[in-house]
Each structure stands twice: as structure tokens, then as C-alpha cells.
């Protein structure tokens, strides 16, 4: 199997352990042609990228692309899906620095309203239907209202109606991630949606450089769910 791209890697700019260059070097050592640096969106209360660092990251990546011509290095961000309206933490002052935007739900995102705060609580403690509906609408509206390349780990930290999400992902040309660290999408979810014709992306979600391109867990999930590898865009078998 050849890994064409790993779009989901973290660095010291959020809560990863390695530098951008260290992630790039591991990617090259594994023969990966394209690597995305995708630290957490700035509204994550503990891990978010500092707004003042974004330009610095862009410049660092531009320099590394010159230094390492055999690999394509991209700057992305793993934005937070903040609420039911699908707001994410990107804005017009910073969007031009990025090559792509991903979005996912995380507990640590700063609430935009009392309701979004309550939803964190519902997901963390109660895990009820109300939260499942809220999470689903949040992801659907995020895809409809923003240009999102990949929805990361759908269903992780907050359950979702995955068929509804898959339908809108297809309509909006949004990829769904099979995350190799968190285990979402999982086997059960994939079995429910694999016939809908979505495009999937495997993401390592590496938080240490050595895990860049580690797709083992995702490949196991794909095998168990019997998903046709033709629907997985960033590998070639
Ligand atoms: Zn995440
Ligand atoms: Zn991540």
C-alpha cells in the first residue's frame, strides 16, 4: 500500500510533540508524497493554535517546501465544530493562510452559547438523543456553510446519525475521515454508509512525528467493515 497523503498531523503549535520539519522528515522516510500540518483551531481552550503563530507556520512551510522538493507540504487546520449552526473557528483574516480546512467536534472548544455549553455537558455525561441530534445538525450545517475538505473523526466524543451526515457530505463534496488514532469512523458506522458513494480519507492524527502515516488502526477498521478501498482517496493499493 502506498500512502499518497496524510492530511491530519499535529505539531508543537497545538499539542503535538514534534516540529513541522520533524513530521515532514518522518513522512519522507515512509515515502509519503504529501503531508498536511493540521493543528487545532484557535477556539480550542487548551490546544488551539495561537492566532499570532499562523503566519509563522505558513512561512515555515513555504521554506520547507523549498528545502524538500520531493514532498508537498500543506498547511491545514483542524477547526472545531462549535455549535448546532455549524460555526467553525476560521475567519476571513486567517483563511488565506491555509491550503485546506478540516473540522471536527472536540470537548475543549469554547462555547458560543449556553446551548453549545450544555451540549458539551450532554455529550460528556448524559450522552442522550438530544445531544446526538445537536451533534448531527452541527456537522451538517458546518459542511453546508463552509468549504470543508474533511470532517475529522465523525462521532468521536459525541454520537451522530452517520447516514444523515454521509448524505450531506456527498452533496457538498466533503470527505469523511477514518481516523487512525480515535477509531472513528468505526466498523459499525462504515457498514451503515459504505454503499452511499462517499469519499473517505484516512488520517493518522499523529501527535508524535513517528506516528505520521500510521494507518494501521484505520486499515483494520476498513477491512472489518469490508469497505472497498477505491473509496479511500489517499491510499493506493
Ligand atoms: Zn480531533
Ligand atoms: Zn487531530
Automatic annotation (TrEMBL):
<dbReference type="InterPro" id="IPR016195">
    <property type="entry name" value="Pol/histidinol_Pase-like"/>
</dbReference>
<dbReference type="InterPro" id="IPR050243">
    <property type="entry name" value="PHP_phosphatase"/>
</dbReference>
<dbReference type="InterPro" id="IPR003141">
    <property type="entry name" value="Pol/His_phosphatase_N"/>
</dbReference>
<feature type="coiled-coil region">
    <location>
        <begin position="47"/>
        <end position="74"/>
    </location>
</feature>
<dbReference type="Pfam" id="PF02811">
    <property type="entry name" value="PHP"/>
</dbReference>
<dbReference type="GO" id="GO:0008270">
    <property type="term" value="F:zinc ion binding"/>
</dbReference>
<feature type="domain" description="Polymerase/histidinol phosphatase N-terminal">
    <location>
        <begin position="5"/>
        <end position="83"/>
    </location>
</feature>
<protein>
    <submittedName>
        <fullName>PHP domain protein</fullName>
    </submittedName>
</protein>
<dbReference type="InterPro" id="IPR004013">
    <property type="entry name" value="PHP_dom"/>
</dbReference>
<dbReference type="GO" id="GO:0042578">
    <property type="term" value="F:phosphoric ester hydrolase activity"/>
</dbReference>
<keyword id="KW-0175">Coiled coil</keyword>
<dbReference type="GO" id="GO:0005829">
    <property type="term" value="C:cytosol"/>
</dbReference>
